Amino acid sequence: MTAATAETSPPPAASEDPILTLRGIHKSFGAVHVLRGVDLDVRRGHVTALVGDNGAGKSTLIKGIAGIHGFDEGDYTFEGKPVHVHGPKDANALGIEVVYQDLALCDNLDVVHNMFLGREETKSRLLDEEAMEARARETLDGLSVRTLKSVRTQVASLSGGQRQTVAIARAVLWNSKVVILDEPTAALGVAQTAQVLRLVRRLADNGLGVILISHNLNDVFQVADDIAVLYLGKMVEQVRREDVTSNQVVELITGGRSGDLGMAEEGSDQEGEDA
Amino acid sequence: MSAVDSTAAEHDRSTIRGIFHDYLVKVRGGDVGSLPAVMGLIALVVVFSILRPDTFTGPLNFANLIGQGAGIIVLAMGLVFVLLLGEIDLSAGYTGGTAAAMMGVVMTRQGWPFVPSLIVCLLTGTVIGLTIGLLVARLGVPSFVVTLAYFLGLQGVMLVIIGEGGTIPYRNDIALALSNKNMPVWLGWALLVVFLGGYAVVTWLSNSRRRARGLTSQPILLWALKLGALSVVSIAVVGYLSIERAVNPNITSIKGVPIVLALIVGLVVVLTFFLTKTAWGRHIYAVGGNAEAARRAGINVQMVRISAFMVCSTIAAFAGLLLASRTNSVSPNTGGDVTLLLAVGAAVIGGTSLFGGKGRAVDAVIGGLALAVINNGMVLLNQSAGRVFIITGLVLLVAASVDAISRRQATASGRA
User: pLDDT-based confidence at B16, cuts 50/70/90?
Assistant: First the structure.
């Protein structure tokens, strides 16, 4: 039902409480101050694109959210409650799943085996293949995936887009609430990119909060609801897609400001988020 | 989607022609499995049967062949576990020898009964495997180097245990029977019925469970074909082994299935069960396929590695017992010489990949049988040991090449 409402009329950004909120996040590696006061809101049913140049701190930010390394400073709120995420398992327990760029699939195993890798369903201590296969199918059907002929094919024989689909399906299998996608279309051709972007949209329409990291602004404008721009470790702006043009985003990424948007005046930051 | 998919597949696979076509597509795509090994095995048997129809095909030689191959086959089954991880255990042969020597010490010198001695034997293997696993998984020393050191070290340990130049004879009846005695004819048939019945029931139940859930299931025709083929082969084997095969039956009667064959079949069933039906088995394949992915999926990769080495060495200890049983004693050569290398060769010839992630317990049996047939057949042809080694080497090369070619074909057709 969340899906239906989200599909027909996406609620305005401010009307719904964000599922994941970061405020004033700092992170340093030795002398290098990578994140310098980052704010981020991720809402249910929304795709939040995280953009920024190389070295802007995107990877550090999502690794912190996923619990791979902790933040030094700042508030991490999930579903309205402050949380402390000390490891990937903590993040998984909250319902946060990450699909990394290299996908982390085992080529020699089939689709079902990969989706349940490390969290196999068992019945009296034996693998329950039927239950896993049925659930894998359910999940794929729920995402309207039509590109996979059989869930018993080895992952090695799948195309890049199909592999991405499997990795994403694995992330949503666990009743996850927030899915973080790291450059899901980077290695894909045109048709497969479109396929994966449709899938990303569907995740949000199904009520999940989605963080999409991408270098490709075409993809971002096609699928995102919110765009968050990181510049040299600062969140310069988080705006609704409708409120900006591609050129403005490029300026924000490369220079940290664009007209009224960006870091120039302290006030405009606040304005951007409320918009 | 699933409905459309399954009906299409059902349509295709419900006739013999459809099944055959499916299989051909799979093989052409590079997924050859153990097909080359099985075909090679059949070809070898045919060639030797034509060249030496009187001796090679006789039931006595057939039983001999199983006995000759048993030690290597069992050793290879253990190696499959570490090969699946993409690792190697060069010391497995001497692990078997050392374990057999330990067994000789407690059984022959101390006079322990069979079962406690067997436990000492297997535990020796498990402890050796544990230390190898810890060094490989915890310290990160390459398994090639660790097991090379063990290969040298255990050879010395064996010499120390046995006492230089000597042997430890086995006198325990059960220990000697393992590799040398046959089961009564009725027991062979009874175990065959249990084996075939078990296979039929388990596969049928799994199929009907899948049908009940609306998943694509094996067509009944395919199930019947597989069961039929398995029945024909195993009935022929048991039948042939039940014939009187003694040279002079009036003195001693030799008939029935060799005990060691039942042990091998039992071991294959148990190991296959662990590899395919438990989460641990699945994790072994996962670590062999992509260790980093397995780690991120929350699998304890170190534990998987350590346990695989423990299983390998424990099975190697059992193989050592079988080898010692066949020669009635443990000598410094038990499990030494080329035993280990032949076992690795057997696993590879059977279709296990040295790159990890691909292999089955039954591969070891197929490959081990192929090696035993070569050795046995060429000796019957009065060929020198030199020629036997040359041919064995060539067969291993062919097997490895077939693996490489099918891998290339698989990459081309997207099956990798």
Answer: confident
**Residue B216 pLDDT > 80:** no
Q: Helix B92-104 to helix B301-327 angle, to the nearest 10 degrees?
A: 60
Rounded to a whole number of angstroms, the CA Rg of chain B reads 22
The model carries a pTM of 0.85
Residue B143 pLDDT greater than 80, yes or no: yes
Coil, strand or helix: which one is A20? strand
Number of Cβ within a 10 Å radius of residue B152? 12
Chain A residues touching residue B288 (CB < 8 angstroms) = 108
- Say if residue B9 is exposed, middle or buried (CB neighbours under 10 Å; 0-12, 13-18, 19+): middle
Task: Please provide the CATH number assigned to the domain covering B36-181+258-411.
Answer: 1.10.3470
Residue A251 has a pLDDT of 87
The burial class, CB within 10 Å (0-12 / 13-18 / 19+), for B192 is buried
pLDDT digits (tens, 9 = 90+) for B244-267: 887 777 888 888 889 999 999 999
Instruction: Give yes or no for residue B135 having a pLDDT over 60.
Output: yes
User: Are the CB atoms for B370 and B41 separated by under 8 Å?
Assistant: yes
Could you tell me which residues of chain A have a Cβ less than 8 Å from any Cβ in chain B? Answer: 88-89, 100, 103-109, 113, 117-120, 122, 125-127, 130, 133-134, 137, 140-141, 145-146, 149-150, 152, 154, 156-159
For chain B, give the percent of residues with pLDDT over 70: 93
User: Is residue B35 within 8 Å of residue B228, measured between CB atoms?
Assistant: no
Per-domain boundaries in chain B = 36-181+258-411
CATH of region A3-274? 3.40.50.300
CA distances from B276 to A127, B283, B286, B292 (A): 8, 10, 12, 21
Q: Which residue from A minimizes the CA distance to B208?
A: A130
